[in-house]
Specification:
heterodimer; A: Formate dehydrogenase/DMSO reductase fold; 2 domains; 17 helices; B: alpha+beta
């Protein structure tokens, strides 16, 4: 991604040490870092005995919000899904909207950890770990919804092909059954990939920890890692293979979720554009969420030298690209509604835009298309941290409205006007949705406190020290840089 | 652990990967075979110097993938067409195109788990105890910023005095004996 030298006087290499004088690009790692400083910087966040007060404050707030979800789930289990706004015809409601939204957010983590690894985008190394953590926590939040939505969550295991006394099996021709396979595989592989990536860093923590409990705890997690070259080679092979497997996996997961819609014969759902459009939308919202998380964390833990403007700028570019695919999807939906010459498709589109819930459609156009795609073209805006943070939240809201519009507007007015209905979420719907945000934030706060949030070994591979130290005259070079 | 006599090997510590790789190459040329480098991040030159090129993780992954594919496909076929056939308006029982998707997911699931667990198994992990952790400087640097070359005592060419003299020529930061 070589660019021409910039014309902004404040962004000239002479004035800004964060700009690489050769390429004119923002540096991936701030100059002046070496092996020890990287280790110290990242392990100090975890292996300190002084947890910042802000962290406790955040945990209390997030935990309080998460308890809303516990209340909502408890009441749901006691009373049944009738406490939600789901009815016939709007039988999917918030549960599926939120499920879709959360799992879409997770997709960016896998994109960063797997697809960008295969494309050798080494800038991804610093944001890789917490993007993957975000994936796992988002999948946790997503999984809550369909399990509750089945009505009797304690029988959720019926979804699995387990032997039973009635000798019946899941319906393998149903996309809802495919979903179970896709999402459970996705969760498993994400956790494995995440953990494998952390083993060497846990080894570092084991060796740097001073408290006996921390030594024991990280020693256990590190599995006795000692950095042997033979181990590293197998480790690298396994990482690359996992990346290669995660790539088709992540694309298939949202494809399968889009089949839940596309296989149904409902106007607005029954369309072939859904798989690519869902995957692009997932990555779009996921990158927005990575920014929403990364910007406060890099500020709070002073990680600006490892998560630099380069990362934020690149994520802005990815959002621009995937946002354009999403915009194409919206355009094609409208076009196909007209071109299909189907009365039902045409009405669905009219109803989506100008019906009683038309405001949802225009909000999604404003939040997903007009605001971000109108502004992310400008490098000046993409390099404004506050702007990226705002736009990331705007996109997250917009993507939620996209799922809301898709799920609700197709369902509540389908073919026969006599069977039309409406959809209105209840306070329990909102409570559970907001509660899952609390669960997500709580898990994330625990993650930044107890797990190396930036992969140390991968950062060390990118240091100038490493690049220079390959040859036999490395000793002098290292002394110069150190 | 049973009490063992003797030492595990001689451990040379370097500040940079270059000299470590050089020492490894010379040691290999001198006929040492049982040796290993320890680095805080993967150093490919060290693998070349140690003549470590291939590993069996890809094969295990392939086998896992094939196993996942056949397991899922046969399972669905058996369940839908043999164990409990449900005639829905005369549609075919063996509707294989629909079975492809769960089979695809399980291919990835089994292959991914095979990649991860075969990597750990071939590496002999988890292994909480290793003689190297006895070396006073190993845990300080091996996972942080130091590069180690260990010539192991089981090598036929290993001799405590001669090997130490051999390692001393590389101006390592230190050469220490590792107790068993």
């Amino acid at each position: 991604m070589a660019t021409k030298p910039l014309h902004d006087p404040y962004r000239q290499p002479v004035n800004d040490p964060m700009i690489d004088p050769v390429t004119g690009e923002f540096a991936v790692i701030a100059p002046g870092h070496n092996y020890t400083s990287v280790t110290r910087k990242i392990s100090n966040v975890v292996l300190t005995s002084h947890t910042p007060l802000g962290w406790f404050f955040g945990l209390i707030v997030a935990g309080g919000i998460a308890s809303l979800a516990l209340v909502a789930i408890t009441w749901l289990v006691l009373r049944g899904v009738g406490i939600w706004g789901v009815t016939i015809p709007g039988a999917w409601g918030f549960a599926i909207v939120n499920y879709d939204w959360w799992i879409g957010i997770g997709h960016a983590g896998t994109l960063i950890s797997a697809i960008l690894l295969l494309f050798k985008q080494s800038w991804r190394n610093s944001i890789n770990r917490f993007a993957e953590a975000m994936t796992i926590f988002a999948v946790v939040c997503a999984g809550i919804f369909p399990v509750l939505h089945i009505g009797r969550p304690w029988l959720g295991y019926w979804l699995l092909p387990l032997p039973n006394t009635m000798n019946i099996w899941p319906q393998f021709r149903s996309p809802l059954c495919w979903d179970v396979f896709a999402v459970s595989t996705y969760a498993t592989i994400s956790v494995v990939f995440w953990y494998i990536g952390m083993i060497p860093d846990f080894g570092t923590f084991r060796d740097k920890a001073e408290m006996p409990f921390a030594k024991w705890f990280y020693g256990l997690l590190s599995l006795g890692w000692r950095g042997s070259t033979r181990h590293w080679m197998r480790y690298e092979t396994a990482s690359l293979l996992l990346a290669g497997l995660s790539t088709p996996l992540v694309l298939s997961v949202h494809t399968v979720i889009s089949f839940d819609f596309a296989v149904a014969a409902l106007p607005g759902w029954h369309t072939t554009v859904f798989p690519p459009y869902f995957v692009a939308g997932a990555i779009y919202s996921g990158f927005a969420m990575v920014l929403t998380l990364a910007i406060p964390i890099r500020k709070f833990y002073h990680m600006e030298d490892l998560v630099t403007m380069r990362h934020l700028d690149n994520m802005g570019k990815v959002m621009l690209g995937t946002g354009l695919i999403v915009a194409y999807g919206y355009g094609l939906e409208v076009f196909m509604a007209w071109y299909s010459a189907s009365h039902w498709e045409f009405f669905m589109m009219w109803n989506r835009m100008f019906g009683p819930m038309g405001w949802g459609y225009w909000l999604l156009i404003l939040f997903n298309i007009a605001l971000p795609l109108g502004s992310l073209w400008w490098r000046k805006l993409r390099t404004q941290v506050w702007y990226l943070f705002t736009i990331s939240i705007v996109i997250n809201i917009g993507m939620w409205f996209e799922r809301f519009v898709i799920v609700v507007t197709s369902l509540y007015r389908d073919f026969l006007p006599s069977s039309w209905g409406t959809y209105r979420a209840t306070k329990w719907d909102y409570m559970l949705y907001i509660g899952t945000m609390g669960i997500f934030t709580t898990l994330f706060l625990l993650f930044v406190r107890f797990i190396p949030m930036i992969p140390m070994n991968e950062i060390k591979m990118m240091l100038p020290q490493t690049k220079l130290a390959g040859g036999l005259d490395a000793e002098e070079t290292v002394e110069e840089t150190a | 652990m049973p009490v063992q006599e003797g030492i595990y090997g001689l451990l040379a510590e370097f500040d940079a990967p270059g000299p470590m790789v050089h020492a490894t190459e010379v040691a290999r040329a001198a006929g040492y075979r049982r040796m290993e480098c320890y680095t805080p991040y993967p150093v490919e030159e060290a693998a070349t110097a140690l003549d470590v090129h291939r590993n069996r993780v890809p094969l295990m992954t392939l086998m896992g993938g094939i196993m996942g594919l056949t397991t899922a496909f046969l399972m669905q076929t058996w369940m839908s067409a043999i164990s409990y056939p449900v005639n829905i308006a005369g549609r075919p029982l063996f509707s294989w195109p629909a079975f492809i998707i769960p089979a695809y997911e399980w291919t990835i699931l089994f292959a991914g788990l095979s990649a991860a667990f075969s990597m750990l198994a071939l590496n002999g992990l988890p292994q909480p105890y290793h003689p190297l952790f006895n070396a006073p400087n190993f845990r300080v640097g091996a996972t942080d910023d130091k590069f180690f070359l260990c010539l192991e005592a089981t090598d036929p060419k290993f001799d405590l005095v001669e090997t130490r003299a051999f390692l001393d020529q590389f101006h390592a930061a230190s050469v220490v004996e590792v107790d068993l």
